């Protein structure tokens, strides 16, 4: 499934909703559909902002659906997700906008627009102007988030021309020495993965001083500390995904002190 740029932040999407409300008001004020030209400026300022609020409300109400879709897709957002979400948003917006027009704007009027004309002559042209702004805003948020994540990644390099690994620091669980290689255990979309990289553990330790040396063969990211555990009489820690990491006597005091200060 190909990823589509997406930002799951609720706060950012509420800002999209506010921008949508403003854009709808400006669009209606200056294009004057729905016989808006018959309104006085005072009436425009009374009735038109409500359409903007309806748009923002529809978008906000859709956000729990967006969160559900995101979690169901294992926090992977695709073009299919984007199309489906916006389709539901448009349908819901039409229902509320038509209801507002029928029961508030032209309530008691003898000749309101028919459902067909309202749909084809008013709503569809309006949504074709308004929706691209929403799509562009959502896409831009997703691209910006991806850029920030990419900039925040660390790179565990291999010697010479050997491959390296780029990942977020908090996705790195531990590094284990394995002959002339190091085995990196990390999370990729919450799935545990391991990768061998040709390098020395001491080089990794120097490059990333926040990692804790627990053993001559292990480095631990304290962010993933879960609990202490004694196995076969030897002290160790349980990290994310139930990875057991031994602690040698040489490093025990330093590791305990570092983890206790991290988890306070």
Automatic annotation (TrEMBL):
Superkingdom field: Bacteria
Database matches in InterPro entries: LytTR_DNA-bd_dom (IPR007492)
Keywords assigned by UniProt, alphabetized: DNA-binding, Membrane, Transmembrane, Transmembrane helix
Pfam name, any one: LytTR
GO molecular function annotation: DNA binding
Residues of the HTH LytTR-type domain: 156-261
Protein's name in the database: LytTR family DNA-binding domain-containing protein
Ranges that cross the membrane: 12-30, 45-62, 83-103, 115-141
Endpoints of the signal sequence: none
